[in-house]
Amino acid sequence: MDSTPSPSSSSPFELVSSALGRYIPRGAAAADGPAEARGDSTGDSPDDGDPAPGRQEQILGAVNLDRDLRITRRNLGAPVFAGLDAAPGTPFVDLLPRGDVPTVTRRLRQVLETGEAHVARVQRLRRADGSELVVSMSILPAAAPQEGLTVSVIAMARRLHLYAAETAIGTSLDIGETAQSLAESLLAWGDVAAIDLDFAVWTGEGVTGRAQGRIRLRRAALVPDRAWPEGYVTLGGDLPSDASRLLAQAIRRADAPQAIVIPDRETIERVLGSPRLVRALVPGDRAAGVACVPLVLEGDPPVVLGVAEVWRRADRPFADSELFDLQELVARTSHHVDLARQHQREHTQVLALQRRLLPRSGGGTIQTASVYQPATPDSAGVGGDWVNSFPLPDGRTALVVGDVVGHGLGAAATMGQLSMEARALLSAGLAPDEVLEHLDKTVTLLDDAESGLAAGYSALGSTCCIAVYDPVSHRVALSSAGHLPPILVSPDGHAGPLAVHPHPGLGAEFALREPFDVHTFIAPPGSLLAFYTDGLVEDPAVSIDEGIGRLTDAVSAVHPWDTLQQAARHVVSALMPTRQRDDVTLLLARTIGYRKGDTATWRLPARDDAAARARALVSALLRQWRTRDDTRDSVLLLVSELVTNAVRHAAGPITVRLIRAGPGLLCEVGDTGNGRPRLGRGALLDDAGRGLHVVHRITARWGVRWTDTGKVVWAEVVR
Predict the structure, then answer these.
(1) Helices 544-556 & 564-575, crossing angle to 10 degrees?
(2) In DSSP terms, which residues pair with 556 in a beta bridge?
């Protein structure tokens, strides 16, 4: 034999074809057409003499394609490939299930363009009768000077298919994808495969300790993708309660889950008992036999997660060995279904927690909109990032963004705790820097040996940024713990990141701790603030400064008339990294403030006549606002008590501010004292604390907040 092959015989197609003759038994392909060895370029498997003793039936085939992905030659004469309609001139994609066409077409064209082979991927091929064959498919570029592709296929043996199927099914924690992978693997044993899961499994609920006879089934997967008869339960549909009960009873013989086979159509109709159930469960007139294999979670007692159904035609009864393979595959993969159920349960819990943390309306003085995009669609990408905006009781608005280290339920729980603690402390009147000091201590406590590191999770290094907007002065007080600087876009169009002093993240070592700074700036009405997490601006291809610059450009392009939620989505879509590696979070806030005619501020000396002067000024304004007499009397009494209390217990100038906000009037009295007014239980004739009791009785709510120069006591009266 000549050791130097000709150019024709050295092509990938010829190399694969020459290998076929060494394995195909004599005469196996004789009926399928002339042999390739006799010069027929469209013929099937060659007959190259007697195979060696002990050789098994051929499982290797080859198909040659032109640049339009049409078949030019094929070598599929082995019996295992019977039924594949691979006539020359037909598109190769006609051999594929409909859902696989886009993916395989993309792979074929990629090999054409790059010349790099695509090797050994599990693929299904569709026979003319609608059944499918599982193969290992490789795509090879044709050897020069020829053009096109050679596709080699290896029909997968049962044991190899079991291994490949189990590997594929365990690659996703999404319960729908897991069920779909299992159904596609089961299709190698039949014409139709369906996975029906207990509704509790589908929703991620607990499955132990329940009465198994009351199972409720939902169709989680169905293959192949084709038109189904009317009344048949398709993907996402609930099986009729009678059908669920029958299946549950059938697979729990002798109080233990077992596989069952119903061999023919007559028996199926007798077992189901009604035409309605036959229409719901039987996938067509040609389906005559079915194998029902329970998905069982091992335990004491075992728990049925659902049922796998494999349907066949009448001329293909199930052999005992095939039923054994079906049971083995389902048994091997049932734990993947339960892992997906647990993951779904965690995913639901995390999303419920995050929905509770979504920003609420900031009231009429500020507009907010937010976007949260997890790193992955499943809960492994849900966790540490959060944004929040909420009105404070004294009329201001808090804006908070944070990034807790890690993902999953542990990070989400820490996120929820920090978010709720920040909200409570801000509502109690603490300044942003004081709130961060408390959060810093909380992260340190969460990370102690008992509750943190021993649980396998650490929140050290988490970041947070807090801003409080005053709608009267339009002043914003902001503090940051290791977080990236917010973006400010002024009404005149000037945009840039705020010059926030960097600070270590929450829970830093004691030697690194330093007081949190408060950055104060003016945000006139129409200003736009952007708070974000690092996932939006970090990209391996660019520096972090360049990422922040791109965000600044995108936010500055938001038009004042644009809907804020739509603008936030547009900014995120424009800046989303090509390969998202972290959660992406964005909070946009547009300042509005109060109208000038709805607020008034007076500065008074701390003298004995301060209360009288304050009453006169407030009375004149209330008449201008046409306030009801009873409301005016309550406000004047409130102002008198608060100013008198400030003169008695503090020094320095006194600030009186009145705000008309919605259905209420907000009165604020600021002084230079740092004592906290407390509502105590005084004696009947005890004059101390009488003013606070008066304030408490005539107001809807009241409170205290601290400033750099002292404190402000505020109270709201309903008009």
Answers:
(1) 150
(2) none
Backbone angles phi, psi at 487, to 5 degrees: -105, 135
Task: Identify the band that residue 477 occupies on the pLDDT scale cut at 50, 70 and 90.
Answer: very high
Distance between CA 562 and CA 255 in Å, rounded? 64
pTM, whole model, 2 decimals? Answer: 0.57
Predicted confidence at residue 433, as pLDDT, reads 92
Closest C-alpha among 648, 661, 642, 659 to residue 703:
642
- Residue 24 to residue 51: CA distance in whole angstroms: 7
Residues 182, 308 contacting (CB under 8 angstroms): yes
- Those residues whose C-beta lies under 8 Å from the C-beta of residue 312, and which sit 6 or more positions away, are 189, 190, 191, 287, 288, 289, 290, 291, 318
pLDDT (tens digit, 9 = 90+) per residue, 72-93? 988 888 788 888 888 899 999 8
H or E element that contains 402: strand 397-407
First CA to last CA across the chain, in angstroms? 107
pLDDT in tens, 243-272: 676 666 655 655 566 777 877 887 877 877
> Is 118 in contact with 139 (CB distance < 8 Å)?
yes
Locate tokens 């809907």: which residue? 563
Which residues touch 143 (CB under 8 Å, ≥6 apart)?
Answer: 7, 10, 11, 12
Is residue 475 scored above 90 in pLDDT? yes
**Which pairing describes strands 528-532 and 584-591: parallel, antiparallel, or unpaired?**
antiparallel
